[in-house]
Amino acid sequence: ARRLGPWAGAAWAALLLAALMTLSLPLAAGPREVALGREIAEGAILPNEKTCSRCHGVLGIGRPQEKTPRLAGQPRFYLHKQLDDFASGGRFDEKMTPVARFLTPAEREAVAAYYESLYAVPYPEAPYGEPSLVQKGGVLSAVGDTARGIRACEICHADAGVGIAPSFPYLAGQYAFYTQHQLLLWRSGAR
Predict the structure, then answer these.
(1) Burial of 189 (0-12, 13-18, 19+ CB in 10 A)
(2) How far apart are CA 88 and CA 117, in angstroms?
(3) pLDDT, position 59
(4) Least crowded by CB within 10 Å, which of 72, 82, 174, 176?
(5) 8 A C-beta contact, residue 45 and residue 111
(6) Contacting residues for 73 by C-beta, under 8 A, at least 6 apart
(7) Between the CA of residue 152 and those of 67, 70, 76, 175, 188, what are the distances in Å?
(8) Beta bridge partners of 68
(9) What global pTM score does this model have?
(10) What pLDDT digit, counting tens, does each position of 82-140 carry?
């Protein structure tokens, strides 16, 4: 009998885990769920001052002047998890926590499905960036910085920051202030 190397058991375990995860992924949202999500986003359930579209826009493009992120086309699973985290207190935001707590789990799922369905909404035009700073950011994103213990962004968010659904959001097209703020929250341990 042929002996397999010590890695064979781990490789089979990883393959099995990947297969099980694929089977457990949520199915695509149906049109009724997406329509419910849009109704909620536009104010059918939430008080007017707390509607999703007030801060994120009807098309999920966010509002840079209010420092709210773009949600259009983000993976449903990711968005739903963030809403659940806000509702449970696992993640806190002065504006988002009360909104998420107001919604039922099914309503949070519907809102996530709606914003995921907006994948064709164009990205904003990229702002001007100092070329040397943009280049440094590109290198950091692609290879990281081992001396500072920073892993490459591409590991989770893919080449050019397009995201890896269902768990890792896109960063490309997200507003710089929002991304910077989230990185600072991660570094401080608040996220």
Answers:
(1) exposed
(2) 25
(3) 95
(4) 176
(5) no
(6) 60, 115, 116, 118, 119, 120, 121, 170
(7) 25, 23, 24, 19, 19
(8) 63
(9) 0.81
(10) 999 999 999 999 999 999 999 999 999 999 999 999 999 998 888 888 999 999 999 99
